[in-house]
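Final report, section 2: Outcomes. Of the targets proposed, Vacuolar cation/proton exchanger is the one most frequently requested by collaborating groups, and we therefore present its record in full.
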Amino acid sequence: MTTDGADYRRLLHGRQNSHQAPVDGADGFEDDNLAAPQSPPHNVGARPQRDLGSADWGVFGSMKIVLFKSKLNLLIPCGFLAILIDYTSQNQGWVFPLSLLGIIPLAERLGFATEQLGLFTGRTAGGLLNATFGNATELVISIHALRSGKLRVVQQSLLGSILSNTLLVLGCAFFGGGLACGKTEQAFRKEDAVLNSGLLLMAVMGLVSPAMLYYTHTEVNLGQSALALSRFSSCIMLVAYAAFIYFELSNSRRRDEASEGGGGDQGDDDYEYAYPEISKWEAVAWLGIFTAWISVFSDFLVDAIEGASKAWKIPIAFISTVLLPIVGNAAEHASAVMFAVKDKLDISLGVAIGSSTQISMFVIPFSVVTGWMMGQPMDLNFHLFETASLLITVLVVAFLLQDGTSNCFKGLMLILCYLIVAASFYVYADPNIDGLRDSQNRSYFLYL
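The predicted structure is given below as tokens.
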């Protein structure tokens, strides 16, 4: 689960280095890498800490918390059922949805393990962990698609993640938050929103340049200049994203120090302390386990996309751009809406816009560099239709975020914009993928 927002890092890591004296006899620690206090303060958001030395803090206790605490884990057997169907009947129309459902709980538990590990590593390292594993699912799926040579699936799935996060997730958060809080407008930190919008526009620039170079036939070396430009731009984007992470973590530390010196943020009292539920090495082990199983299920998922498209008679572009991002990030989407309903809109923006920034400035260029090392011609030329959709989306979102407020109507506009984009990809025939031009297989309602 992706979270770039400073408030969300405060939620995950607490203020373990707070200068305020602990209450109700709690033991204080000067270093935020030490264990959390044994006697938690009596505040609303604090959770009881498991005793580090108790028998409950073992393999079975960890399995109980990680595997049985989340109801989403009931979907994990779907992934194994997909593997069974693939080996027995090879019915790709069932393998794709089942493997996708199996990935959902694994992605959510991967985020949980990352958060738990962040409680032991300190604020800075925890922020870097969230930045690294935030979109691990998309990264794993992209690597498997690159290995299979399905470059358009990589491009369209990553593009779809950006579109769904910026339009659908953010729109649902604005709409749900406006209804639940009963306010005319909700406020969020405008500075973070503007910074993320700027990075999204930079990513659009990186995608527009190769596309225009290719479609205007102005390449110095036909078919090679756009690829070379994409690889150069990807390296620049990775450097820019690393600088953004450093800037964000430094600013977060300064804000926390200023907040502690001024008596703390009143609005964050419920999330003042967070305690680990599993040990550090258990978190590391679960990270490896969940990443490995996501990789296994992703392999079957990618191989089944084309077969599912033929079985369902819908375009691969629609599956890659709409269905894959929505279902694959369902847990993350729900968390963004949940925080908006609780009037924690900065956290919702960290999930939605922060995730889009991470995909556009890290996952996409990383996929280009990875394809370069694999010998695959993965580039930033997402073609005119996809690039234009992204450009318009980023401009709409940046315009709505510039005043630092949200309301129900803004959320409704973003949701309706996403419906238009989704319908566009349903009737879009990708010229690079065969079998998508037969309009007789499309649903009738789109032609009314």
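Residues 6-54+64-428 form a domain with the A middle domain of Talin 1 fold (CATH 1.20.1420.30).
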